[in-house]
Amino acid sequence: MNTKKTITSLFPYSSVSIIGMEKNSGKTTTLNYILKNLKGSKIIGLTSIGRDGEDCDRVTNTHKPRIYVEKGTLVATAKNLLCKCDITKEILSATGISTPMGEVIIMRALSNGFVDVAGPSYNSALIKIRDLMLNFGCDLVLIDGALSRKGSAGNLVSEATILATGASFSPDLTKVVEESSHNVKMLQLPSCSEKIASLTRQILKMGKIGFIDTESNIEVLDLPTSLNSHREIVDAVKSNYKYLVLGGAVSKGLIESIVQNRELFKSFTIIIEDGTKIFIDSNLYHKLSMIPVKLEVLDSINLLYLTCNPSSPYGYSFDSEKFCNLLKTSIDVDVVDVVGGVL
Amino acid sequence: MRYLDLKNREKIGLEYLTNNLTTISPYGNLKKRDIAPIEEPETLEEIFDHLEFFIKICQQNKKEIQKLDLLLMKLKNISNIVLNLQKGKILDEVELFELKINSMIFMEIRSISNDIFLKDFHLIDLTPIINILDPGFKKIPTFHIYNEYSDQLKEIRHKKAEAEKLIFSTTDNQLQIELKEERRKIVVLENCEESRVKTEISKQLISYTSDLLTDIDKIKNIDFTLAKAKLALKYGASRPKIGEHIEFIGMFNPEILETLKVKNQEFQKLDILLKNGNTILTGANMGGKSVILKTLTLNLILAQMGFYVFSDYATIPILKFIQFLSDDIQDVSKGLSSFGAEIMKLKEITGCLRTYDKGFIALDEFARGTNPSEGKKFVKGLSNYIKNFDSFSIMATHYDGVVDDSTPHYQVVGLKNIDFDSLKRKIDLNNQNSISLIQKHMDYSIEKIHSNFEVPKDALNVAALIGIDENLKDIIKNLY
After folding, report:
1. CA separation for the pair A332, A241 (Å, rounded)
2. Do A94 and B97 touch (CB under 8 A)?
3. Which are the contacts of B67, defined by CB distance < 8 A and separation ≥ 6?
4. CB count in 10 Å sphere of residue B116
5. Which of A298, A311, A305 is nearest to A184 (CA)?
6. pLDDT digits (tens, 9 = 90+) for A62-72
7. Rounded to two decimals, what is the model's pTM?
8. Least crowded by CB within 10 Å, which of A103, A195, B44, B365?
9. How far apart are CA B293 and CA B324, in angstroms?
10. CB-side neighbour CA atoms (13 Å) of B230
11. For B160, which of A96, A105, A111 is closest by C-beta distance?
């Protein structure tokens, strides 16, 4: 995929989120790469879920690249970080949405410069910010997803998603490739049929967890979340049930209980809201599919491509060509090397 | 508290009303939180004059009011920014932005309100503030430290842009690092000049802070009075006359009215006249004595807070205190029995009487927590005690013979005109609904009793209607 294609593939959308597999997987590098190459063709609105764009990573204490925006870009960030943005700022809106670092302010860059971005940390506020920026006349809102906040990739928030992976995830190249391809698989889980989708929506209107049986009857469990309710869910299974609907986040523990009670769940299909809601590794997913249990989603995520960063801030790097080629062979989405350039 | 404690305010339905008061701006919402009773008749009359005028405007200028509502909705509370500015704080970009945006909205409000409202509500012209914050006269609702503020700033920014162009066109890494360092220095210069400008603007703005505060106060009053007007229109409330006695004709309780509406029932409006001294209220169980006391107290405090009252016609005196002793005041948290709590409250009430003389006291089943023969003495004693003051009091009681004929006496009509046997048959046929059937046949209106002071003895009848064991009923009956 060449640079031009990487950039033009963003054009049909008004909001794109960039999510990372782990800390330091090259999200900011990806963002800078896109910002640099989009220069002049689109008015960009930039925000993040939670905090990003620090000089130094607060969690792992490694050096991080800063975000550099062009003149004309809109930026939504917390008020206390305005002093860390060296663009000339035109204040467009004080949104009233508060973050630990102050109210989220929307501004226009009247010069080029570095920005420090910290947007709201929940989706509904993020949607509000996105819409405000679109109203102020930007063409494309880029949302920087923070550490394990894959939620911003959900359909409600952004129309398309870019996944960033990189050497920082693990020094073991095979492991990085394996987990990256697993993450892509999760994001690209197939959608369920129209009929099942409408039954699922019915269940999610009434509660969080439910079953659909062979005759399309639904049963809703009175549980606020699937977290820590493994036992109740397993106990509620009846022989004529065919689908398990799980609203909200789906934890590793629940899937482990399902694997342990494999007999009960044979030939089940689990419906989740979207691919960002499930938190299991490739090993567990493999076990699940051996039962066999299928995973399907209510809303599929539009994954545009995977970006890879072959060097790690911890001081090692992979051979870029080898890394990218391995990724390409195991994943059926385009792979872009945002450091080395065109692939 | 002189004008009801918080618990009683909630109990009589004042909370419900203030929650239903639709103030729109953050200023109006603040005002709603501390509404205080007014003791000067002139001030109160002026507030009623304003309210009357606003009600008229709400009916006549619907379009303007709608526009005004939308503008009020856009406002943010900038009081703190203005107060900080007054104290000499240098405002940052966001604060200057808020000041500009809100001043622009104030001006939009002004263009409507100064045409339709009384002079007391006219806003001051804020054009000078907007001009300071919009040096290019662009009239766009955004703000930045404009180049117009300083030639030096313009020059620095020009240099910054040049540097950025160079950085973009350079591919040599080393040179790029040098250029970025160069740019960083320019950014520092820009920051310094920007803060100089901010200091200067803030100084210029200080002299307008009092104008801003005046406008904020006016908007607070506009929003609040509009909300009161809308409330009065919603329920058909009326302007009370300030006089020497308490009189309500067609009084009702909006909260209970709404509850009944859901059940497709109507509130039976009440007429009541209280003169100085004590008035007795009696009536059957379930007859709504408590509701009458609550509604009366609610309307009295509302009037004194400058609201229209929920009544077709009303006269109210200026009261120095309003007290309510409810029938369920037991305070377990303080380890008090109901009688103990009543006496504590009574201490507060007599204290008010001695200090302020003219007030209003509603007592719901006072001394019910103790034995009837002593309780009766307490009620009688209190009734005689209150006569010594210029206050109004109303007591709901079950005890008879506590007062002489000279004390005015109201009675809930209740089930007086009902054929108990036929109602009992109806209830027997439809056992589930005994309570609602009784409510349906209950006459909640009150009438003045002129002589033969005797409390209605409907307890056994009501109990029989709701349904008690037949044997028990017979045993009780034999005791009568």
Report:
1. 33
2. yes
3. B112
4. 16
5. A305
6. 566 788 899 99
7. 0.83
8. A195
9. 9
10. 18
11. A111
